[in-house]
Amino acid sequence: MVAAVEKKLLDSPCGLLTQVFCLLHIFNLVTKGVISPFVSKKKGSSGSEEEEDEEDEENEAKPTAANDMDDDADGNDDDAVLPLRDQNPVQDMEDEKMLDEISQELEAILGDRGIPVPLVDNEDLAIARSVFHKTRRLGHKIHFSASLQDELREICDHLKITYKTLKRLIDTRWNSLHTMWASFVDIEQALDELCDPSPKRRSCMVKLSKDQKALKSWKLTDEEWSLVNSIVPLLKTFVYAANHMQTSKRPMLIEVIEYMDTVNSILEQWVKDKSKPAVIRYGAAKGLGVLDKYYSKTDDSIMYQAAMGASSTISFFYFWLC
Asked: Compositional bias (Acidic residues) spans (predicted)?
């Protein structure tokens, strides 16, 4: 589109030379890279497990735009200020293609930084994908079940845990995975009790319902909970930066570079930190690859150069020290 505008307006500086990238879209793509090890790719119409899950969810309840907006008003959602996006299958396919290309180039991308690619085996990926599958199903089930919400509230009261609304994944909001997982962490013990009742609470049940059998299959293991607890702080980084830009009265172009630098540094630290789960470090590496791709594009736009030149401090750092 930018190239087309450039051809139409021959006497105008509009075009690739003056292109400015949407920071929220960049963070969306970086987040996709980070969580990509957790998400199984769809396999067309072969009837994969994930596709069957989605079909079951549609039968349980059909989410609407009104449902999505209700999520914002229900409980304290710090991420609610971020806008909904329209579903775009073509764009999603292009994003997947880009992530595949980055996966193939990951060794070279990290090699330039002197960082080895984190080693992830099939077992690590299976656990990560199990986390995504279980939390997505559990969040959806509880969101559309008033009885389960009441039961979860009672469990929280019994365990003396502050009850917080459990959030679900919203496809049209890129930050909702962080929102969902953060809400899970807040009531981890209560969710375990809901999914797999203790003998004392089980004895009070007349019989196990179909929901209870499903809930037990969605109970997270200790290793899965560890992954959720580990990745939430990383995802919070993108949400915090996006929230700041979204709510700022005067968002500055120079801040885009500053935030990209900050996120770049944070992702690099995560990739290097061997105390973090390997699958999250691998996702952080892919996110770093996405950020590198868009960071390099800013070199082609005079807009970013002009913004940096307008700041004496930033100008000195980039043009003289770098």
From this structure: 48-59, 68-80
